[in-house]
Amino acid sequence: MKTVYKFLFAAVLMGTVSCKEEFLQTEPTEFISANQIAEASALNPSLQSANVAGIYATMYGAGTGGTTGHDDFGHKSYDMYGDLLSGDMALTSVIYGWFRTITEFQTTVDYTQQDNYQVWRFYYRLIFAANTVIDGLGGSDAVPATAAGRWYMGQAKAMRAFSYFYLAQYFQNEYNPSEKILPLYKNTTDPNLPKSTAADVYALMVKDLTDAQTLLADFNRANKSEVNASVAKGMLAYVHGAMGNNAAMKTVTADVIATGGFKIMTAAEATGGFNNLATSQWMWGVDITVDSKLNLISWWGQMDLYTYSYAWAGDIKGMDKALYDLIPANDIRKAQFATASKLAPIGKFYHPNKVIGGQRTIDADYIYMRVEEMYLLNAEACAKTGDEAGARKSLKAIMALRVPDASYIDALTGKALLDEIYLQTRIELWGEGKSYLSLKRNKGTVNRGANHLKFVGTPIPSNDTRLTFKIPIEEVQNNPNLNK
């Protein structure tokens, strides 16, 4: 683990070395200590601007999992891992073979494979980068005196929690608070640490995200590539849901719905390409431009027929056939998928120019979170806490914009209501990296449809060990304290 920290230490900190000449001259110039950064940041919190920007850049950069693989393009890589593991996304052909080991459960079973180390490295690199900012602003218990300092601290804490959440989801089979699951690094100077319990890991997430909401309460972000208070609340909703804290999930999602200022996508927007950060329903994403220098090694390079991509070349990731068959013919989301192209999402995710194979340098944006997630999480939480009227209201808010008549929801109760919420979550958020999270929250069972290449029709419950990554061999070998 510390090798990952060392890899990032110089890269992240060097971005802060541009001013305070007398500060630089008092210490050797080859390295910059955490103490120096903290001293400088106390005088000028904006020194952390480059570090926070670096966190967001890591989220979508090629190779940020430490490999040259074409499945290594930041957080959206692991969104795709989860979608494929959940079975809702089918790899329908393997001309080139990217993601095949995921869909065949080779990576999750074999801890020596590169892909599981890639997941581990990526999120721990984000954690180190976040800890760099937090340390530079005085540490986890500090409240910076300036507004800018509070905002940087809030974003860093949110991103640290976000990263631990995905590690916990991918590396713990199912939530068990007493199980030791991950080393819990809270600063950049921690030595190699043993695994902490899930209770401790999740407690840090809750604290970080609760702090972030307060720290970001008056933050008006420049664009939706940055985390604000609403996004931090959305992250917290997922954390509570994973722990089974449904009452808390209900409260926080209701807050986002009421105060976030986001509206549900119309039918036209639901088939509008999911390519523009300015879409009013998007809560968080990234504005990809030609200056981002993304190309084939990108999410669009895997998914979009209208991009120079593996999808265009024949490695199509389509909707699971069994799930597709559950979408009514009059549901607008049926049009998101092409039956002639192995249920590829050519009506959901596409470059706006719609030239087949046309987008070479990526300028279509990435989505990380949208408000429909909050409505669906709220519906789920309401149903699980006995507020069925509230559950129906939140679910109907979406379905009224997807089907001509959503009145069928009025008659749903009990398990039928919960099942419908789970189904609509899978359909609405398909391909956005949320299916795996929903599968685990709802203790569902994967039943792959006919367009998968392997394990068709084999029931795979959410707690099947093949759906969870093993701590990689590199960590086992390099961290002597891991199992103490």
Automatic annotation (TrEMBL):
Taxonomic lineage: Bacteria, Pseudomonadati, Bacteroidota, Cytophagia, Cytophagales
Cellular component per GO, a single term: cell outer membrane
Residue ranges occupied by any SusD-like N-terminal domain in the UniProt entry: 103-236
InterPro entries xrefs: SusD-like_N, SusD_RagB_dom, TPR-like_helical_dom_sf
UniProt keywords, alphabetically: Cell outer membrane, Membrane, Signal
Pfam families xrefs: SusD-like_3, SusD_RagB
Family, per entry: Belongs to the SusD family.
Subcellular location: Cell outer membrane
Domain RagB/SusD per the UniProt entry, residue ranges: 341-446
Keyword Coiled coil attached: no
Coiled-coil intervals: none
Species annotation: Aquirufa antheringensis
Identification of the protein by name: RagB/SusD family nutrient uptake outer membrane protein
Record SUPFAM superfamilies: TPR-like
